[in-house]
Design brief:
By secondary structure, the protein is α+β, with helices and mostly antiparallel strands. It has two domains: 162 residues, Cathepsin B, Chain A, CATH 3.90.70.10; 185 residues, Cysteine proteinases (Cathepsin B, Chain A). It is built from 19 helices and 14 strands. The termini are far apart.
């Protein structure tokens, strides 16, 4: 027997042995004996009966709020950035876009001398969907030679024009399409509750993907595939216009300034953006604290973009201490900071408290749910699934005690839409912040000159794209 055949035989025997260990009758299953032991382990005494009555008849979070912690809470801040009214993303996954536009609003208030302003999220939402559709179809062409069960293809097929996104998505949109006031392209039913529209376009694009892969399998060249793709995009745009309205190429904006003066001026979306904002969005850097990878490194994530012709999302992986220091310096300089965090844990809705331990599961259920940040992240118990904005800080004993947060969930949740993030919550659940290059030291900036290491599309930091 030659060496190769011997190796195959040994591998087969190993697999049979391994499978056999886990497939013997009853081993590892819930046998009658095990079920009996499990049932006997729970005695419905007076305490458990009271807990059972309470949990089955009440909202869980109301039962487990740590009252002592809640009573100590205050929402006073030594430093605040003056911002316009709270926005509301409604039943959509547009947090990343709302947060990005919210960072621009304080500048626009000053530039136009107005009391309040809101930009049209719907306007950029339409262009984001069209760009995502184009990116998806280009990716289908790029991967046409791979089997359909390739993991990259399956991830892309999951939701071709998903609402979610990242900071780099917003930058690409704003720099290409500009912005417009909300009243120029207001919300629609589909922009506020997008699932029906998304499902329709996703299914259309999956059908288009079948056709592009068929043409590629028949040996058709890229030029032919791209011609077909461009025709497919006409249907996508038509559906978007039906659902969201027609995006303006130019508009006249009439508004009243703080002095009561009525102003009327014509803009294109790009000229409006250029007049409204003082900074270059391209000067902002994505800083992350990714617990699964070495720090002081530069990374990129495959297919983490909404345009076909921009780089995938890139980030510097830095220590939590650095990330927090850069955030503090930026906020104290009156610049709002876009950030991504995990809002599944320790977030109390009535008072707007973000603090580890605000929910006391242990006392009621006698179970410990705590898991270290790294393991919680690796085992998908924590993902940066929501974007918000830092707009204030309260410093005590020369360190941040708590941070003021502008959210996009309307005014019914939190303290009329604002949230208080205690510093310990930052340590546990904040994963990404966006910082201008001017606040970064030379040694950090030099990391941007290195070749980024590529992470797969299913990496935990992007697998639950921001909602």
């Amino acid at each position: 027997m030659n060496q190769k055949r011997l190796h195959v035989l040994l591998m087969s025997l190993t697999m049979l042995f391994t499978f056999g260990r886990f497939s013997r009758a009853n081993e590892g299953s819930l046998t009658p004996e095990l079920l009996r032991d499990i049932q006997k382990s729970v005695t419905v005494d007076a305490r458990l009966h009271a807990v059972q009555n309470a949990v089955t008849a009440n909202d869980l979070r109301g039962l487990i709020v740590n009252r002592e912690m809640s009573n100590r809470h205050d929402d006073h801040f030594g430093f605040k950035i003056e911002t316009p009214h709270i926005t509301d993303q409604k039943s959509t996954g547009r947090c990343w876009l709302f947060a990005a536009l919210n960072t621009i609003r304080p500048s626009a208030v000053k530039k136009f001398n107005v009391k309040d302003i809101e930009f049209s999220q719907n306007y950029l939402f339409l262009w984001d969907k069209l760009e995502k559709a184009n990116m998806f179809l280009e990716a289908m062409m790029e991967t046409a030679g791979r089997p359909i069960d390739d993991r990259n293809i399956q991830e892309l097929l999951e939701s071709p024009v998903a609402d979610g996104g990242w900071w780099n998505f917003a930058v690409a949109l704003i720099e290409k399409y500009g912005i417009v006031p909300r009243e120029i392209m207001p919300e629609t039913i589909s922009s506020e509750k997008s699932k029906g529209m998304d499902d329709m376009i996703d299914n259309l694009l999956r059908k288009d993907a079948v056709e592009l892969r068929r043409l590629a399998a028949d040996g058709k060249k890229v030029d032919r595939l791209r011609k077909e793709k461009n025709e497919m995009l006409l249907n996508v745009y038509r559906l978007l216009v039906i659902h969201l309205g027609t995006p303006p190429a130019e508009f006249t904006w009439r508004y009243e300034d703080k002095d009561g003066k009525l102003v009327e001026k014509s803009f294109t979306p790009l000229s409006f953006y250029q007049e409204a904002y003082d900074f270059s969005l391209g000067d902002f850097v994505t800083i992350a604290n990714h617990p699964s990878h070495p720090i002081d490194k530069f990374y990129t994530i495959k297919y983490c973009r909404n345009f076909s012709d921009i780089p995938d999302m890139r980030f510097l992986n830095l220590s939590m201490q650095q990330m927090k220091a850069f955030t503090l310096a930026t906020v104290l300089d009156t610049i709002p900071v876009w950030f991504a965090a995990d809002t599944q844990h320790d977030m109390e809705n009535k008072k707007g408290i973000m603090q580890p331990g605000i929910f006391d599961f242990k006392s009621l259920f006698d179970v410990d749910l705590t898991l270290p940040r790294k393991e919680r992240f690796q085992y998908r118990g924590s993902t940066p699934g929501h974007a918000m904005t830092f707009i204030g800080v309260d410093i005590q004993n020369d360190r941040p005690e708590k941070w003021l947060i502008e959210n996009s969930w309307g005014t019914d949740l939190g303290a009329k839409g604002y949230w208080t993030m205690y510093d310990g919550w930052f340590d546990e659940y904040v994963f990404v912040v966006i910082i201008n290059k001017s606040y970064l030291p030379e040694n950090v900036l030099k990391l941007l000159e290195t070749t980024p290491m590529e992470l797969p599309i299913w990496d935990p930091i992007s697998s639950m794209i921001l909602q």
